[in-house]
Design a protein that fits this description.
The complex is a heterodimer of chains A (265) and B (188). With 265 residues, chain A is of the alpha+beta class. Chain A has a domain of 75 residues. In chain A, 29% of the residues lie in helices and 27% in strands. Chain A has six helices and 14 strands. Chain A is globular and about 50 Å long. Chain B has one domain. Chain B has a six-stranded antiparallel sheet with strand order 1-6-5-4-3-2. Chain B starts with 13 loop residues before the first strand and ends with a helix. At the A-B interface, β1, β2, β8, β9 and β10 of A face β1, α1, β6 and β7 of B. β10 of chain A pairs parallel with β7 of chain B.
């Protein structure tokens, strides 16, 4: 039995313990690495938690909360899952705290979203959102929660580069070169924290970018990558956009959320 | 395979290295996809007409006509396939329910080749001493990769090709009371 562990492997019962699993999810490769004995159920729970985020928050799923919200008319309340509400709350909070630098609206602005305490979300003005820039991090956080509830004490969840580690001791993480994702360039040690990165370098057409400046609607043509470390992956994910748009690795918002950033030239 | 030749290297260190992770072997993948199900391996080769029909339906070339295929007692199928990207090579298992719907996809092996380059000190310098619990190290033995988001496009395409393969060639195998494998199979 092949069983790759993060540290020295020990004896495992066949089929009951596998150290690493990966599935194509969230448009990328999601890898879960568990240190120590781990039952298949823990992996299943973690992957299911990620699938739940994708099912409710993907803009490309026909019946997702986000799809229904985008199709709703202004003033028409939309009932969304508690998980979606949680992500929308964080998005709105970051939108306000960053004076609009973080905005996951792809038409209109997130400022026009009203989140009721009863699970209903209402657009006050025409508005369409894409939670891709924060929900991927939330999916990693949800997977971490599922692993913890399953009794896992130390693990790392990596959604194609956006990742979170928990448990005692450091996890070493190599960062890809933002100019050439096939290259690895530097390494960090991660201790109970999350890491997310953004780069426009991977957009393979000139003038295109995965990140748009909400202030003027123009693509952010970065010649660098941004990496943010934060206590939660949803935060790290969202804050990469604030750093990318502001071009400020010391943006005051980072310290407020216990995060730090690196701009990689 | 091209023969190896020694070439003069530039002074900057640029070594080609490989990152590889094995998650599951074929048997483990079958058990993860269909726990408790007993499988038999079926030698199965697509004939040229089937390969052409699959390529047309999936809109993707069929490069390998020999399938790695297992059938469970209830008509479950597991296919092991490999997709190759610019820098990566992924082996994965696709589990298909008897009705041809996807039960699950599990990555079995992930291999990546890249140039491992030690970047300039200015680039690395910003990491050092900045973070509690975060230190820069250039480390050869790291299994976790952050930074860029990898696309899973090739796996998605591979699954599309395998679903077309089921539709065109494997549909009869998904019967619950299939006879001996040798009787049910077309020849390679």
């Amino acid at each position: 039995m092949r069983c790759l562990m993060l540290e020295a492997s020990s004896d495992h019962r066949r089929d009951a313990t596998i150290g690493r699993r990966a599935r194509p999810m969230l448009g990328t490769l999601v890898e879960i690495s568990v240190d120590g004995v781990c039952h298949a159920q823990a992996f299943d729970a973690a992957f299911a938690a990620i699938e739940a985020v994708e099912a409710t928050m993907s803009r490309w799923r026909e019946h997702s909360d986000v799809t229904r919200l985008n199709r709703a008319l202004p003033g028409e309340p939309v009932v969304v899952a508690p998980l979606t509400r949680r992500v929308l709350r964080l998005a709105l909070r970051l939108h306000r705290a960053s004076a609009g630098l973080f905005d996951c609206a792809i038409a209109g602005t997130l400022a026009h979203l009203a989140i009721g305490g009863d699970g209903r979300v209402t657009k006050r003005e025409p508005l369409a959102i894409d939670l891709g820039g924060i929900a991927k991090g939330e999916a990693v956080d949800q997977a971490v929660g599922a692993l913890r509830r399953a009794g896992v004490r130390r693990a790392l969840v990596n959604a194609g580069g956006d990742l979170r580690a928990f448990g005692r001791g450091e996890f070493r993480v190599v960062l890809r070169d933002p100019h050439d994702p096939a290259r690895r360039a530097a390494a960090l040690c991660l201790n109970d924290a999350a890491l997310a990165s953004s780069s426009a370098c991977y957009a393979n057409a000139p003038g295109r970018s995965a990140i748009v400046d909400p202030r003027n609607g123009q693509p952010v043509l970065m010649r660098h990558g941004v990496t943010v470390m934060a206590p939660r992956c949803a935060l790290a994910d969202a804050l990469t956009k604030v750093v990318a748009v502001s071009d400020d690795a010391h943006h005051p918002l980072l310290a407020r959320f216990g995060a730090q950033a690196w701009i990689i030239h | 395979m091209p023969s190896l030749r020694w070439l003069p290297l530039p002074l900057a260190v640029l070594a080609v290295s490989a990152y590889a992770t094995s998650y599951l072997d074929a048997e483990q993948a079958r058990q993860v996809l269909f726990p408790g199900v007993t499988f038999e391996q079926l030698p199965f080769g697509l004939n040229p007409a089937q390969a052409a029909a699959i390529a047309a339906q999936a809109g993707l070339p069929v490069r390998v006509r020999q399938l790695r295929l297992w059938r469970g007692a209830g008509g479950e199928l597991v296919l092991v396939d490999e997709v190759i990207g610019k820098h990566d090579r992924i082996t994965y298992a696709l589990g298909l329910n008897p009705d041809g719907t996807v039960k699950g996809i599990e990555i079995m092996d992930y291999r990546e080749s890249y140039g491992h380059e030690v970047r300039g000190a200015a680039w690395r310098g910003q990491f050092i001493g900045k973070a509690v619990g975060a230190q820069l190290r250039v480390d050869e033995d790291i299994r976790n990769i952050g930074g860029a988001t990898l696309s899973c496009r090739h796996v998605t395409e591979g699954v599309r090709r395998l679903l077309a393969t089921w539709d065109i060639a494997l549909r009869p195998l998904s019967k619950k009371t299939a006879g001996p494998a040798s009787d049910a199979l077309p020849h390679a």
